[in-house]
Amino acid sequence: MPSTVVVGGFFGDEGKGKIISYLSKKDNPSIVVRGGAGPNAGHTIKDGSTTYKVRMLPSGFLNKNAKVMIGPGVVVNPDVFFKEIQEYGVSGRAFLDKHCGIIEQNHLEQDSKGRLKEKIGSTGSGTGPA
């Protein structure tokens, strides 16, 4: 089974999400998987005149035939994940790997104040502490 892997090499903001959304429609894959850290970075995707902003779902969710999966090692904010499933209509085709971490309320609190926020400019998403 052929596969395409898109990897960024410049610390984010390379346009991976836009490339993946394009390829997911052009190549019509049966599965689109997101790897990486967690909801600390988002993707803005345009489809015609509609703009989508995702933080948890893979950018290839626009392909209605594809299963969308979150890969092992990604930390997941359940609130963000389930909101995006509902908002973008991917119920029944969204899956989490059993080796994903879960961002809990205490992770959000740790990440929103103190050293992490002040020293490194954390996004406050809970990804680092989780």
From TrEMBL:
Biased composition (Basic and acidic residues): 111-120
Entries under InterPro entries matching the protein: Adenylosuccin_syn_GTP-bd, Adenylosuccinate_synth_dom1, Adenylosuccinate_synth_dom2, Adenylosuccinate_synthetase, P-loop_NTPase
MF terms (GO), sorted A to Z: adenylosuccinate synthase activity; GTP binding; metal ion binding
GO BP terms, alphabetized: 'de novo' AMP biosynthetic process; IMP metabolic process
Pfam families for the chain: Adenylsucc_synt (PF00709)
SUPFAM superfamilies on file: P-loop containing nucleoside triphosphate hydrolases
UniProt entry tagged with the keyword Membrane: no
SMART domains per UniProt: Adenylsucc_synt (SM00788)
Keywords tagged on the record: GTP-binding, Ligase, Magnesium, Metal-binding, Nucleotide-binding, Purine biosynthesis
Residue stretches spanning the membrane: none
UniProt-annotated stretches for the region Disordered: 111-130
Gene Ontology CC: cytoplasm
Protein name: Adenylosuccinate synthetase
Organism: marine metagenome
